[in-house]
Amino acid sequence: MGAEVVIEGLSKSFGPQTIWRDVGFTLPQGEVSALLGPSGTGKSVFLKSMIGLLKPENGRCLVNGVDICSCSEHELYEIRKLFGVLFQDGALFGSMDLFDNVAFPLREHTRKTEAEIRRIVLERMEMVGLSGAEDKLPGEISGGMRKRAGLARALVLDPQIILCDEPDSGLDPVRTAYLSQLLIDINAHLDATILIVTHNINLARTVPDNLGMLFRRELVLFGPREVLLTSEDPVVAQFLSGDKTGPIGMSEEKDQASIDRERQWLASGQIAAEQRVVGVPPQLPVSAGLPERQAVQRRKNRVMGMLDQLPPAARDSVLRSINDQPAAAPGR
């Protein structure tokens, strides 16, 4: 099973500019989580802080009990081996073919023979649907293929934690759907802990087991998908519904006068309250033939223990979503 990641009081600034402050949550072991937020809220900075590429001013990031923010260089080198990272652009070496790109971490960090490396690379490329493309250069393939090649490279060291920085950026909706399915299927295969940074609403509503949201330099909420998707928090509700009415504006936040005008407009009855309620859509199931994701039942058990803390409407929606959850996707 993937490692548990515990974030405690993490704060990051660049000079006088605070990016986010006092962020704390736990990534449950073996589950898929997503961190949301409007553009410019520091989501990618957060990922880089999690793996020690940036050093926060305060707080801790604990992986298997080791604090990435304060450990020695040797400890950081070892703990990073637990991570696989998919960067926004795939971050492939343009002069290497896909095979050598995917093989790079194995050659850098292990003493495996070339025969072992070839077996692992071909397995991972098959897992992401790139069999037969080993000899192609990154410049010869589509953006979606580059993302999948980057994901294959992130998987070759059998990571316990997989970080995906806006995996849908630059992809059309169909390729995004395939990549979303791929992340769910990888979780079914590996039971790894996965964190996806995104602002894609459809991905956020259908893929992860847990959701968190950054806004106004703080973590608004983090928890199981059923709880966040029924949240009455105005920032979360606006973002997940894609509505222009709410605290989020063209810049990160609206001024108070704009928010007050919108409240008066809503109170006048021009928008019915029920039109703004966002339900819990079915979660993307695994592909046919794969084992059920163990994460689903772990999350459901956690949610059932939280029911008495939820408003009645949210409680009803949560129960419906849990009872109606499909077991597996039909074969293609």
Automatic annotation (TrEMBL):
SMART domains: AAA. The keyword Cell cycle does not apply. This is ABC transporter ATP-binding protein. It comes from the Bacteria. Pfam families: ABC_tran. Residues 311-332 are annotated as: Disordered. Residues 5-241 form the ABC transporter domain. PROSITE patterns: ABC_TRANSPORTER_1 (PS00211), ABC_TRANSPORTER_2 (PS50893). Keywords: ATP-binding, Nucleotide-binding, Transport. GO terms for molecular function: ATP binding. It comes from Saccharopolyspora endophytica.
